[in-house]
Amino acid sequence: MRPNDAGQVPAVVRLPETREVLAALAEYVAIPSDSRNASRETMREAAAWIAGRLGFLGARLEETAGNPVVRADWLGAPGAPTVLIYGHYDVQPTGRLEEWPSPPFELTVADDVAYGRGASDDKGPVYLVVAMLAAMFEQRGALPLNVRVLLEGEEEIGSPNLPGYVRSHADALACDLVVSADGAQWRPDEPSLSVASKGLVSCVVEVTGAAGDLHSGRYGGTIANPVHALAAILASLHGEDGSVAVPGFYDGVAPMTPQRRAEIAAVPFDDAEYAARIGAPGLSGEAGLSTLERLWERPTLEVNGVEGGGRYTVIPHRAAAHISCRLVGEQDPQHVLAAIRGHVEATAPAGVRVSVEQVGGAVPAYRIPDDHPALAAAAEALRTVYPGQEVLHAVIAGTLPATTLFEEVTGAKTLFFSFAHADENAHAPGEFLRLRRIPEGMRAWQALLEGLADGPHRLRRGGEQEER
Ligand SMILES: [Zn+2]
User: Fold this and answer.
1) Using an 8 Å Cβ cutoff, are 359 and 158 in contact?
2) Do 225 and 315 form a contact (C-beta atoms < 8 A)?
3) Which of 108, 138, 194 is nearest to 435 (CA)?
4) Distance from Cα 418 to the centre of ligand 1, integer Å
5) What is the Å distance from ligand 1's center to 185 Cα?
6) How far is the CA of 217 from the centre of ligand 1 (A)?
7) Ligand 1 mean position to 354 CA, how many Å?
């Protein structure tokens, strides 16, 4: 490590004050980089702003077919492992302005939170890492390990150009671990690490009958009704016990280990409170499992919408349902789709035609193994900030395609290390970041990087061997 002007490497890094972080974050939030609606210039302005803050690492914009990515590399720690820090500079649309407590692009502190679009997803969490790295670099003249940064500008629209960029820059992105500053901790009161995310595959089931809608009097009772047929098919997708009744659906799903069940059972969780919070009259799902077990460890098949007919006295000629499955373990999205197709064809009543077509991309589930050193190093880092608290292994029940992409291209697993929380209205009006996460997040990131470089759970360098 390089000494500073005083001739020593300072052991303690003075991290910026919360108010300094807020002042900078306010500038960043003020650039309305809504990737669904903003101009290319606005998107570039946001990219350039955060690249400017990473100037000490030589940050630059690199072009993609869409919005540019922000890239930086500091490889001044020979022999040390390399981490790739991932995040995004784009934000969701604001939604209804009247539902915001303050203008969405004016970072506004109220009580113990800061409101603003991107405060929690993902400008705030990314800026915490950047501010910490800048302080560390300024005071020590070096980082404890090699750091690459990749911030994309299209995460909120499904990252259409990330796969192309990552695949064509495999060598430049070589690393031993990806650390994502995106994602959220599960609850504000318990430090947690997300160890898995669910896969996703979607399809449309279409049922057709006659060539056009028919008079329900003149033709009623003589032909099959596609809406009835669809209803019967949809009803057959789940068993009485709430499990998915499609043969082959669960292939690749391992039974939960007693250890994992015990771990989940130890998480304080109140079904009634959960139901009340979402305004539901009660909970439902697979029998014999707790709510958290179903949410974190089990795959699901959901009918997202149905269409067909209307308020007319006709026999509709077409009915359709949109279905999505969240996958776990080794479930193969294409196998799941084929299983659904087979089940729909086998269950379709006589007199209708059925089809099952995939919609959108298919993403397998992702998991970082429980014994990966990055998890131990991250837990250690969280314990330095939240002493005496157990670090929970949580699951992101959503889908994060970037994880599988990074693993495919770099061979590296992704660690989620975000100081946002699931309840901070990300994507909704009134998005906020908790102020105490600012110092906590910076300290934890510092502890993480130091731990990965040189702690008891130091990251092994694997990049070289895995590169061909
Ligand atoms: Zn995000």
Assistant:
1) no
2) yes
3) 108
4) 10
5) 12
6) 53
7) 37
Q: Does residue 165 contact residue 75 with C-beta atoms inside 8 Å?
A: no
pLDDT tens per residue across span 141-166: 999 999 999 999 999 988 999 999 99
Query: Among the CATH numbers 3.30.70.360, 3.40.50.2300, 2.170.130.30, 1.10.287.130, which is that of 199-252+289-362?
Result: 3.30.70.360
pLDDT digits (tens, 9 = 90+) for 362-393: 889 999 998 899 999 999 999 999 998 888 88
Quote the crossing angle between the two packed helices 437-454 and 123-140, to the nearest 10°: 60
Q: What are phi and psi of 404, to 5 degrees?
A: -70, -35
Report the C-alpha gap between 68 and 188 in whole angstroms.
Answer: 33
Given a cut of 60, whether residue 467 has pLDDT beyond it is no
Listed in sequence order, the DSSP H helices in 236-332 are 258-265, 271-278, 291-297
Give the angle 436-48-46 at the CA atoms, nearest 5°.
Answer: 55
Report residue 98's pLDDT band, with 50, 70 and 90 as the boundaries.
very high
Give me ligand 1 centre to Cα 88, in Å: 7
CA distance 29 to 26: 5
For all residues of the chain together, what is the average pLDDT?
93
CATH 3.40.630.10 domain extents, the chain: 18-197+365-466
Segments of the chain assigned to CATH 3.30.70.360: 199-252+289-362
How far, in Å, from the CA of 239 to the mean position of ligand 1?
35
Q: Is 365 in contact with 197 (CB distance < 8 Å)?
A: yes
Could you tell me the two tokens for 295? 């949410």
Q: Tell me the per-residue pLDDT of 211-247, one tens digit each, with 9 for 90 and over.
A: 999 999 999 999 999 999 999 999 999 999 999 999 9
Q: Sorting pLDDT into bands at 50, 70 and 90, what band is 184?
A: confident
Q: How far is the CA of 19 from the centre of ligand 1 (A)?
A: 23
**Domain 18-197+365-466 sits in CATH 3.40.630.10:** yes
Is residue 15 scored above 60 in pLDDT?
yes
Pairing of strands 414-416, 214-215: unpaired
Task: Provide Rg for the chain, Cα atoms.
Answer: 25
Ligand 1 center from residue 251 Cα (angstroms): 31
Ligand 1 centroid distance, CA of 156 (Å)? 7
CB neighbour class for 15 (10 Å; exposed up to 12, middle 13-18, buried from 19):
buried
Distance from residue 183's CA to the centre of ligand 1 (Å) = 6
